[in-house]
Amino acid sequence: MPQKAALITGVSGFVGSHLAEHLLSKNFDVYGTIRWRSRLDNILHIKDRLKLVEADMRDAHSVSRLIKETSPDYIFHLAAQSFVPTSWHAPQETMTTNIIGTINLLEALRSAGTDSRIQLAGSSEEYGLVYPEEVPIKETNPLRPMSPYGVSKVAEDMLGFQYHKTYGMNIVVTRAFNHSGPRRGEVFVTSNFAKQIAEIEKGKQEPVIRVGNLESQRDFTDVRDVVMAYLLAVEKCKFGETYNICTGKPRTMKSVLDTLLSMSKIRVEIKQDPARMRPSDVPLLAGDYSKFHAATGWKPEIQFEKTMEDLLQWHRDNTI
User: Fold this and answer.
1) CATH of the domain at 205
2) Number of domains in the chain
3) What is the pLDDT at residue 1?
4) Cis peptide leading into 136, omega within 30 of 0?
5) pLDDT over 70 at 218, yes or no
6) Bridge partners of 245?
7) How far apart are CA 267 and CA 290, in angstroms?
8) Rounded to an integer, what distance in angstroms lies between the CA atom of residue 11 and that of residue 19?
9) Same domain assignment for residues 43 and 102
10) Quick check: 80 and 121 in contact, CB under 8 A?
11) What is the domain-level CATH number for residue 99?
């Protein structure tokens, strides 16, 4: 039986690199998109086993060429401007990268007449403003995005539905809640906390940890569980449907910081940094993954403490 070919857009990113590892372990032929300025640190250890293709998702011709060259069985569309605070500073770039990039991909697939199975990576940020009586959040909850990033992901989500209904394309949308683990970008909260701790331990930073809103609550899943879910989504889920990927266990940012600090011997002062506060923050995101579990049997396996331990160790190993 021939190897299945999988295409990961944004393969050099945090989730893309973990997904590539998972697919290689399943004996997939793995293609991945990069741009000329992409940092390849996350995939250096597997680079020789990947088939990297230079492509810009914002350029329709580039994406059309990508699909013709790779003819993938499975597509995991992860390429995005994914940092919520940046979306307030660069809303147009966020919309162009996330929405136009998705349109270019779906149009290229439609034109090529491919029968690929496609996973569109949505986000819990689509839910945005959630009322206490709506928790845990089901896929049927109203979408009230509170950031340009959230709006862009709602658009991607709706594009997936529209292209499935209009053209019969094999599209599944996943709404992953917060996820973390080794190689998480330092601008994201768990990784930022871990990096600050690692730098304080090595005397690179004064013993002060700068934070944003510690009262907001998020539902964290280990990235290694998330990428397993992404593969199951295209293998077992119903096309045209949307599925939450989460743990159902919300944690305050304070508890996240406390967990990381419990793994270190340092004594620190905690200071709120106005620059880390969002113009509008979502106070609570906690999901319900029962629909996805019913379709695939998936459930989160890696404990949050293990995720934080591995993330902190990764920063220790990479802090010079």
Assistant:
1) 3.90.25.10
2) 2
3) 60
4) yes
5) yes
6) 176
7) 41
8) 8
9) yes
10) yes
11) 3.40.50.720
Identify whether residues 194 and 266 lie together within a single domain.
Answer: yes
What's the pLDDT tens digit per position in 1-35?
A: 668 999 999 999 999 999 999 999 999 999 999 99
Residue recorded with tokens 């295409």: 7
Q: Tell whether 270 and 153 lie within a shared domain.
A: no
258 with 111, same domain: the answer is no
Mean pLDDT confidence for 62-76: 97
Q: Say whether both 36 and 135 belong to one domain.
A: yes
Are 114 and 148 found together in one domain? Answer: yes
Distance separating alpha carbons of residues 40 and 185, to the nearest angstrom: 13
Quote the domain boundaries for residue 196: 189-217+250-284+303-318
Q: Biggest alpha carbon distance in the chain?
A: 60
- pLDDT in the model for residue 225: 98
Q: Give the distance, in angstroms, between the CA of residue 238 and the centroid of all CA atoms in the same chain.
A: 21
DSSP label at 280? S
C-alpha 98/C-alpha 156 separation (Å) is: 7
| Cβ neighbours for 195, distance < 8 A, ≥ 6 positions apart | 186, 315, 319
Give how far Cα 258 sits from Cα of 77, 152, 193, 219, 264, Å: 34, 33, 10, 16, 10
Residues 215 and 254 sit within 8 Å (Cβ to Cβ): yes
- Taking Cα atoms as reference points, which of 29, 4, 28, 33 lies closest to residue 16? 33
| DSSP bridge pairs for 272 | 211
Domain match, 170 and 27 both: yes
Cβ proximity of 281 and 197 under 8 Å:
no
* 3-state secondary structure (DSSP) of residue 111: helix
Q: Which of 42, 94, 306, 21 is nearest to 190 (CA)?
A: 306
- Whole-number Å distance between alpha carbons of 278 and 196: 20
